[in-house]
Amino acid sequence: MRKTCLSLVLVLVSTALYGAKPLTDGPLPPADDYSVLSGQATIGTIDAHTIGVIVNDGGPYRHIFRFWSNTVVKPFRMTSESASVEFRGDELIVMASDQEWFYALVTTTGDFHAPRQPMGFTATRYIGYGLNHEIRPFAVRQPANGRHIIALDDCADFGLCLDNLDYGLGAGGGGTCDSGGAGSTSCSTANSHGSCSVSCMNGSYACCTNATATANANCRCKF
After folding, report:
1. Which of 17, 22, 38, 47 has minimal Cβ neighbours within 10 Å of its Cβ?
2. 84 or 4, higher pLDDT
């Protein structure tokens, strides 16, 4: 009887571990300085100086972008089911063909070559000092009634998905860097738990920290 119970416990533990298995094994693709995406996108303010963008392109990864502005940004939130998103390291273009709106988030270096909005689109441009790109994996679970996909991280709420309690902004903020560090204007890092890159300007420097089994990759601008 004891042996039967032990076998049952082992089976349940193995099932729980399999349930959290990512869709892909091994390192995640790097959060490159150039990406073109299309699909569902939400853009909005995280706080008075930070704008976030979440993109779900139907693949096994969620793309997250954060943009830091020196000036105060009025609260807003926009969602499109058929958005086009282009990331160039120092600028992010989010365009919704279904609703005809266009957002350009650019650092001071990217401001000179950001594209113009199509005719008839409502356009908004923000200039800031930092822009990051983060990739997070989805996971597969095998419930009794069939296979479906869930997120490894909690993105049911826009704020929860984008919130990062340690942006590394301000004196003494942040932790250590696996790449980047004082003097660098950009950095990137990737492993099987997370991938991100960041570009920084205006006196700040780039700092990237590897993801762990319990924490997402963190790429941010520090002063």
Report:
1. 17
2. 84
